[in-house]
């Protein structure tokens, strides 16, 4: 299991941008590189949903709702995953959770709040 720590959330206007970061401070490089990393989000009254994921090789997958607006990337040397969010919409408002998966086992961060509001 990995300890995951998110940061970068906040309050932004519609159309604005945020960059979320997730680090695995207790992991060593050789372990971190083997995980698929992902960002999930959960809005009030809704189930947690997958936003984006990136494999150990750097191949990204995005939910249709964020394609063209969000970019997921990873820096294995820093044990870090980023989610660049552009053109934010009110419906993007949610708690965003970092996730690490390997062999069907999940690790979760505590989440960071993103609020998009005028």
- Contiguous helical run count: 1
Instruction: List unreliable stretches of 5+ residues.
Output: none
The amount of beta strand, in percent, is: over 45%
Label the overall shape: globular
First and last CA, distance:
39 Å
Question: Which keywords apply here?
Answer:
single chain, mainly beta, seven-stranded mixed β-sheet, four-stranded antiparallel β-sheet, globular
Care to describe what's here?
The structure is a single chain. Strand 9 (94-102) and strand 10 form a beta hairpin. This protein has 118 residues and is mainly beta. It has 1 helix and 11 strands. Helix content is 3%, strand content 49%. The longest helix is centred in the N-terminal third of the chain and has 4 residues, at 29-32.
Task: Describe what is shown at a glance.
By secondary structure, the protein is mostly beta strands. The chain is built from 1 helix and 11 strands.
Chart the SSEs and their pairings:
Layout: E1 5-7, E2 10-12, E3 18-23, H1 29-32, E4 36-42, E5 49-54, E6 60-62, E7 70-75, E8 80-85, E9 94-102, E10 105-108, E11 112-116
């Amino acid at each position: 299991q990995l300890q995951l720590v998110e940061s970068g959330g906040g309050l932004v206007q519609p159309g604005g941008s945020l960059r979320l970061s997730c680090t695995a401070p207790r992991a060593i490089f050789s372990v971190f590189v083997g995980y698929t990393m992902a960002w999930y989000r959960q809005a009030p009254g809704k189930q947690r949903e997958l936003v984006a994921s990136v494999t150990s090789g750097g191949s990204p997958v995005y939910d249709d709702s964020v394609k063209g607006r969000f970019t997921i990337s990873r820096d294995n040397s820093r044990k870090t995953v980023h989610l660049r969010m552009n053109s934010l919409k009110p419906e993007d408002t949610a708690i965003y959770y970092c996730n690490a998966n390997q062999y069907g086992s999940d690790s979760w961060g505590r989440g960071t709040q993103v609020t998009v509001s005028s």
